[in-house]
Write a structure and sequence with these properties.
This protein is an alpha+beta fold and 250 residues long. It has four helices and seven strands; from the N terminus they run αββαββαβαββ. The strands form two sheets. The chain has a four-stranded antiparallel β-sheet with strand order 3-4-2-5. A three-stranded antiparallel β-sheet has the order 1-7-6. Helix 2 packs across helix 3. The chain is elongated. The two termini are 48 Å apart.
Length: 250
């Protein structure tokens, strides 16, 4: 039989492939794997307060609706300035002027002008309580207020680092318990997977507010307290889950 120049190369490739298959077979035959899961949870108090302040004015004349809106917004902004809020913490989230098909008794079209302001600041129940008091004293009308909280990126990152570490330790403990119960030996980590659950926050800048105590109402020495004067905001639960795949000796 006459060998061509390519024959030795083919023989070498065949030998290498056979060797790899044999090696893989031996590894599969003598080793296996176990999957261990771990988790960690923590309740965290939000550190950011979010206020949405919406003023809406309606009139049969468009420019009057806009004028009345601007007057009310100016009064609201001045009230916020008294509490230490600045232009950095007061943001415009929406401004709209529109008309609708509804007409009054005199068959005149209605125009509506609205402006939404948004406040984001480091959560302090004293500031929140004072905010409601100042708005009440200012006698503002056609104002809607909504309140919410969130966890800042910096605080969430700090908590999640701790949760991941705890979840890993929990997974390792579970793996060791399984190995001990089955009388098997853990060799090495093949794979680690992290599942994230809980709150996700967008990047945001948190501004400090210089707090000024609210003034006393007239000469009556009456101060109207809100629930923020006594209670804290609700905690948010953050959670991390870790799955570790271990190689074991059979």
């Amino acid at each position: 039989m006459t060998l061509t120049p390519k024959t030795p190369i083919r023989c070498a490739l065949l030998f290498s492939l056979t060797f790899l298959i044999s090696t893989a077979f031996c590894q599969t035959k003598n080793t296996g794997e176990i999957i261990a899961e771990g988790g960690s949870k923590m309740k965290v108090r939000p550190d950011v307060a979010i206020f949405s302040l919406v003023v809406e004015k309606t009139d049969t004349i468009e420019k009057n609706a806009i004028k009345n809106l601007n007057v009310e917004i100016d009064a609201l902004v001045n009230t916020l300035y008294k509490l230490g809020f600045t232009n950095k913490t007061i943001k415009i989230s929406d401004y709209d002027v529109s008309s609708n098909s509804y007409r009054d008794d005199n068959d005149k079209k209605k125009y509506t002008a609205s402006n939404s302001l948004k406040l984001e600041f480091q959560l302090d129940t004293k500031i929140i309580d004072a905010l409601y008091k100042e708005i009440q004293e200012a006698g503002l009308s056609d104002l809607e207020i909504s309140f919410d909280t969130k966890i800042s990126d910096s605080l969430e990152k700090k908590i999640r680092v701790l949760l991941v570490r705890q979840a890993i330790e929990d997974a390792k403990d579970n793996a060791n318990n399984i190995a001990k119960s089955l009388d098997i030996k853990l060799l090495r980590v093949r794979q680690v997977t992290k599942y994230r659950e809980g709150l996700f926050n967008q990047t945001m800048e948190i501004n400090m507010v210089k707090f000024t105590p609210p003034k006393v109402v007239g000469d009556t020495q009456i101060v109207y307290n809100t629930s923020f004067d006594k209670f804290q905001v609700e905690d948010v639960e953050l959670e991390e889950k870790i799955t570790i795949v271990y190689e074991i000796a059979k």
